[in-house]
Amino acid sequence: MTEPFRVCSICRKPIPFEERYYRCSVSTCNQGKSALFFCSVACFEAHVPDMRHKDAWAEQATAPSREAWEASAETKAPQNAVPEEGEESGESEERTAGGVARRVVTTGLPAEKDAPAKAEVLVVVSKLKQYIRERAGMKTSDAVAPVLSDHLRALCDRAIRSAAADGRKTVLDRDFPGVE
After folding, report:
1. d(CA 62, CA 15)
2. Cα angle 153-154-155, degrees, rounded to a multiple of 5
3. How many whole angstroms from its chain centre is CA 113?
4. Comparing C-alpha atoms, which of 129, 178, 123 is closest to residue 152?
5. Sign of the torsion angle spanned by Cα atoms 131, 137, 143, 144
6. Beta bridge partners of 106
7. pTM
8. For position 81, what pLDDT does the model report?
9. N or C terminus of the chain: which is more exposed, having fewer CB within 10 Å?
């Protein structure tokens, strides 16, 4: 027996290539590795109370052919690749399961997409001031928080690159350099 396209998320029945299956209309049920697939509407309905959806319906879909699925898997770019500092943006093309081409443009770390995130303070200023006051009896300038936040962003960017280099989507404590 050949390998199926997917298995039902409820009854574990195989869903063959080029056959009908059902998806949940709620977007969070269709994302990445945790996407849910159902062999029947009954299996979909068994999923709804567990996920506590207020308004959801089963969307009918057809599994791609094995050839189309394998071709799309070969052309996909690594999703966890994060460019190094100073790397230029790149473009690649990938094909979806339906054979439709789409252009993927990488511009850098995800945090660089949001300019307002650069201005946000990442520390609890009152706790920082309290620590310095209790530790050394000194006051803390309001200009310290943005500078410290910039240092935290740089540390986080390095940790993100480290996790991506290891093929992980979770940043762990070991991704941060030790304190000197």
Report:
1. 10
2. 90
3. 15
4. 123
5. negative
6. 90
7. 0.41
8. 44
9. C
